[in-house]
Amino acid sequence: NAGVTQTPKFQVLKTGQSMTLQCAQDMNHNSMYWYRQDPGMGLRLIYYSASEGTTDKGEVPNGYNVSRLNKREFSLRLESAAPSQTSVYFCASQTVDRGSEQYFGPGTRLTVT
Amino acid sequence: KQEVTQIPAALSVPEGENLVLNCSFTDSAIYNLQWFRQDPGKGLTSLLLIQSSQREQTSGRLNASLDKSSGRSTLYIAASQPGDSATYLCAVTDSWGKLQFGAGTQVVVTP
To answer: Partners of A75 in the beta sheet?
Structure first.
C-alpha cells in the first residue's frame, strides 16, 4: 500500500517550458487535491477533484490545468512555466467524507529559472 | 475569507520540556481542524483531527484542544524529544470541505 505517490520528486524548468506533475493514490479515495507550498506560507489549494470526472478551482489556479484521468490519478499541468511557479507541490487524497483526513504525497520540488 | 495563524513561527526547547503550539482562525464555521507534522523535504503527516463538535483529541504524548467559539486550537506535546523536531501545521476544513492552512511553527528540541 503506497498511499499517495508523486512524480517527479525534483524538476528544473526554464521560463516558458511546460510539464505535467503526476499524482496517484491507491486508497480508493474519491477526492484529490493539488497544493503549493511557498516559504513562510502555508499550503494553498490550486485545484481539486471531488470525484472522478469533476475538477474545480482552488485559491490559486492561474497558470495551471488539471486532469482527473481516473479515480486513482490526478495530474497538474503547467503550460508555460514562470519563475513565480517555483514552489513545492503536494498532492493529497481523501475519502468522500469531507470530515476525514487528507493524506499527502511526498511532494515535487519545482524550480523555474 | 478564513485566515489561519500560527504563533510563534519558530520555537526551541530543551529535551523533556512540554511543547505548546497555538493556532487561531478567523471564521468559526469550520468542519474540523487537523494538526500535521512536516519533516524537512518531506510531505505532511496527519497527527490529530478534531471534529467541530469535539473539544479535544489525544494520541500518545499529543493532545489537541479546540475552542471553536474563540477560534483557537492548541497542540500539546508532552516530554519533548529531539525526534519531535519538525514543522507543525494546523489546517481547518471549511464548510466546502477545503483545507485552509497556517504557515506553521518550526520546532527544534535540543538534547
So the answer is: A67
Partner residue facing A106 (CB), from B31, B43, B103: B43
Question: Which tens digit of pLDDT belongs to each residue from A51-76?
Answer: 888 999 999 999 999 999 899 999 99
Asked if A68 reaches chain B (Cβ–Cβ under 8 Å), the answer is no
**Residue A98 sits at the chain B interface (C-beta within 8 Å):** yes
CA distances from A77 to A18, A24, A62, B68 (A): 7, 15, 11, 37
What pairs with residue B24 in β-bridges? B5, B72
Range from A75-79, A94-98, B17-21 carrying the lowest mean pLDDT: A94-98
Per-position pLDDT tens, chain B of length 111 = 889 999 999 999 999 999 999 999 999 999 899 999 999 888 899 999 999 999 999 999 999 999 999 999 999 999 999 999 999 999 999 877 789 999 999 999 999
The cell numbers describing A105, all together, are 504525497
- Nearest Cα of chain A lies from the Cα of B70 at a distance, in angstroms, of 21
A48 touches chain B (CB under 8 A): yes
Q: What angle do CA A29, A96, B92 make, to 5 degrees?
A: 105
CB contact under 8 A, B101 and A58: no
Residue of chain A minimizing CA distance to B51: A99
Pairwise CA distance, residues B102 & B94, whole Å: 14
Residues in chain A within 8 Å Cβ distance of B91: 42-43
